[in-house]
């Protein structure tokens, strides 16, 4: 049993799962709606792009919790989680799941960025530089990585409904952390760069702030990237620590949670 083998197995199972369509739908609906809106509205398209990225980041906790909660529940009802609990190495099987979730999330985010920017470009609107958009997508994803092991633990320990409810609360906190959705758009402020330092301590707000900070640096070169570097280091260290703890925990886990 290898990590690569468990990753391949998880990807194959995704092909037969409705969760793949959830990602495809997510990669189409939001960027299409927001893209066409900001393409024809009088709002500054650069600030509109910043508001869109903040929305993507704020929705990550809810989206990740929905995906993992339903995936675990599907496996629980189909085979009592045998692909995880009956594997020769539970830790490797779990890591394969986490890698598959994260890669699918990255692909979805990339599509969300590409479709939105493609629409703005098609209408001849101003867009941030390609480098700032790429950096924004990557760091938004990095900022969300901690949510994957957390959501997996929650789905296994607390069940589907509680996990989704937690995701909704975390997304609401992320939205409020930057003053609310479209706050920067309405106030014409680069809200991620001006947000209080308490946001550093809110992991659920990392995706929206990190993605927005990278973009705001592209909009205004005076926005410092130092907070982004700090966030990235904290995010990567946190996900490694939490994943290691989860690898130890899964070895003694017994599944007693089933929802209908």
UniProtKB/TrEMBL annotation:
Keywords: Membrane, Transmembrane, Transmembrane helix. InterPro entries: ABC-transptr_permeasesu. The keyword Acetylation does not apply. It comes from the Bacteria. Pfam families: ABC2_membrane_4 (PF12730). The chain crosses the membrane at residues 20-39, 51-70, 98-123, 129-150, 162-186, 234-253. This is ABC transporter permease. It comes from Alloscardovia venturai.
């Amino acid at each position: 049993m290898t990590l690569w083998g468990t990753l391949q197995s998880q990807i194959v199972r995704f092909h037969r799962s409705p969760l793949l369509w959830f990602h495809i739908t997510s990669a189409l609906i939001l960027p299409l709606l927001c893209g066409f809106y900001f393409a024809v509205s009088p709002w500054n398209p650069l600030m509109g792009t910043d508001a869109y990225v903040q929305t993507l980041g704020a929705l990550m906790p809810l989206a990740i919790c929905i995906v993992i909660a339903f995936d675990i529940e599907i496996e629980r009802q189909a085979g009592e989680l045998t692909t995880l609990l009956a594997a020769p190495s539970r830790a490797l099987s779990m890591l394969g799941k986490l890698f598959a979730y994260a890669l699918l999330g990255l692909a979805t985010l990339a599509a969300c960025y590409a479709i939105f920017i493609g629409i703005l470009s098609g209408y001849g609107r101003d867009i941030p530089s390609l480098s700032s958009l790429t950096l924004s997508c990557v760091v938004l994803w990095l900022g969300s990585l901690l949510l994957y092991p957390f959501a997996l633990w929650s789905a296994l320990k607390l069940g589907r409904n509680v996990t989704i409810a937690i995701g909704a609360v975390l997304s609401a906190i992320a939205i409020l952390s930057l003053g609310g959705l479209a706050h920067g758009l309405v106030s014409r402020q680069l809200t991620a760069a001006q947000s209080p330092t308490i946001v550093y301590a809110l992991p659920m707000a990392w995706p929206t702030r990190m993605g927005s900070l990278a973009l705001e640096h592209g909009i205004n070169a005076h926005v410092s990237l130092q907070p982004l570097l700090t966030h990235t280091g904290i995010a990567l260290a946190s996900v490694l620590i939490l994943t290691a703890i989860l690898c130890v925990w899964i070895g003694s886990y017994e599944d007693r949670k089933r929802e209908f």
